Amino acid sequence: xxxxxxxxxxxxxxxxxxxxxxxxxxxxxxxxxxxxxxxxxxxxxxxxxxxxxxxxxxxxxxxxxxxxxxxxxxxxxxxxxxxxxxxxxxxxxxxxxxxxxxxxxxxxxxxxxxxxxxxxxxxxxxxxxxxxxxxxxxxxxxxxxxxxxxxxxxxxxxxxxxxxxxxxxxxxxxxxxxxxxxxxxxxxxxxxxxxxxxxxxxxxxxxxxxxxxxxxxxxxxxxxxxxxxxxxxxxxxxxxxxxxxxxxxxxxxxxxxxxxxxxxxxxxxxxxxxxxxxxxxxxxxxxxxxxxxxxxxxxxxxxxxxxxxxxx
Amino acid sequence: xxxxxxxxxxxxxxxxxxxxxxxxxxxxxxxxxxxxxxxxxxxxxxxxxxxxxxxxxxxxxxxxxxxxxxxxxxxxxxxxxxxxxxxxxxxxxxxxxxxxxxxxxxxxxxxxxxxxxxxxxxxxxxxxxxxxxxxxxxxxxxxxxxxxxxxxxxxxxxxxxxxxxxxxxxxxxxxxxxxxxxxxxxxxxxxxxxxxxxxxxxxxxxxxxxxxxxxxxxxxxxxxxxxxxxxxxxxxxxxxxxxxxxxxxxxxxxxxxxxxxxxxxxxxxxxxxxxxxxxxxxxxxxxxxxxxxxxxxxxxxxxxxxxxxxxxxxxxxxxxxxxxxxxxxxxxxxxxxxxxxxxxxxxxxxxxxxxxxxxxxxxxxxxxxxxxxxxxxxxxxxxxxxxxxxxxxxxxxxxxxxxxxxxxxxxxxxxxxxxxxxxxxxxxxxxx
Lengths: 312, 432
Prior knowledge:
The structure holds two protein chains of two kinds. Helix content of chain A is 71%, strand content 0%. Chain A contains 15 helices and no strands. Chain B is 3% helix and 17% strand. The termini of chain B are far apart. Classes of the chains: A mainly alpha, B mainly beta. The A-B interface holds A 161-163, 166, 253, 257, 260, 287-293 and B 26, 30, 45-46, 48, 50, 65-66, 68, 86, 106, 110, 125-126, 128, 130-131, 146, 148, 150-151, 168, 170-171.
């Protein structure tokens, strides 16, 4: 049971990164040791969700992209967290954020993350993990996101059969970093895949890297821009499938199978995109629903995303 | 959405009330304890039953389309005629379940346990059964077209009459499984273990059995047109009456096969003769006689056989839709060879007192291209360019209107010099 928090905490909703005007800032109350501990515990809990863009940035960086798409959101999240850290006197966290913001600001300004900048981000991130592990540790998040992304990539490769997928995992190619590093020749030899299938797999994995930044479009952080066209496609495929399922002829059966496959492919893309947005729980929940319900849930999700966008 | 909540369902179950025909669409019953629940005809479309205990439940005719049943306990469940299309049954336990006539089209059964399950007439087209345990499961007349059965354990499973067209059986263990009359056309069974399996009368047209273990398998009367046996093990296989042509038999691992019609090992054939035997015929060797008299052989369309000498014994029925180049065919008394509409015999010779019917094309290599036939029939679409050397008993000829002939008929060889017919006919002819 946590101590009841009696100290007002700054809102973490404002992720714009704009510093609050000092003149208008209320005088910070003097905290007792117990209040400070309670405030820090609450901060730790809230921060885990709040700094998701920062973890996304670092995960993308680990997977091999430059992750520039997440820099603006990450900066906003860290700026507001820093203000809060100041109030609850978490000096180590404050310093760690300041250190991390130096390379991050370069990335924001240049809209590009060089190799050297990537190394600086990685190096300064270690201090963030050490200061607030519950919010900044990557292992848990990576372990939840990565399988969804891998599933999404593998499921979209034409000709990649279930047995081949098993072989890929068996030889250690079930992780994003290894998939992104591998060449088609290596995949073909190591996992005993036909050449064209291995080439298609590597190309699909590289698509992920291209959309991971490195000068690429930043839309992977924008739920509506990423998901709206995919949900529209899924909806139309669901209608086609339902139509085909009404008939009993061989043509209907063939059409049904085709639409089923199309629908599954689109859902895999959606699942990957949602996981990449960091909404792993939603992605996992979607898997348990029928296609009709998936569409309903996705439409609601997009409405909420639209509402949030308008509010901000 | 569902007419009942999770709590209401559990409460009704606790009071031993039936849930038959209940509308439970999309309900979340994950990990729910519902053993022996009465859910016949219930509508559970899209329901989440992950990890639920439904052991012994009655789900006959239930709608479980797109239901989420990962890891569910469905042992001894009655799922007869249930609709499980696209259900996710990954790692579900269906040991001893009754899935007779169930619809599992497109379902995910990866790693599921189906030991002893009854799946007769079930619809499993495109289903994913990779790594599933199907030991002693009954899949008689099941529809498994394009299904994934890679790495399954299916020892002693029964696939009699099942349709496994274009299915993947790669790496699966089908030891002693029954595939009697099953359709395995274009199936991929590379490295499959099929020792002692019964593949009698199975259609293995273009099936890839590379590196498969078929030791002691029963392949009698199986269709082997275009079947790939590259590197397969076939020692002790029963092969009497196989039909087909040009099976790819490179690098076979075999010391003998059994060509006895009874499959009792009384007619062992050793490895030098086996490739031709699997191709629907046998290469001529010293002292070799075809013991399987009266067999039917079929050489399928798209196959090419070159430079072979084939011998068919009395009463054999042979149909050729393949291309034969530079081949010699020896027919026993009364053997019948039919060159189908797709069949082309180029630079070939047929000898022996058999009956020859040409719907396709025959071109001789050297005169006489046909020696001693009992009957020669060329039908309306047939073409024949050959000299026919008659036996002591004259050949019966029949040429249908529309056929194309370049024919020279010669008397028996002892009076060849006095051949009475040197006519050379071209164009449309009626009877010869």
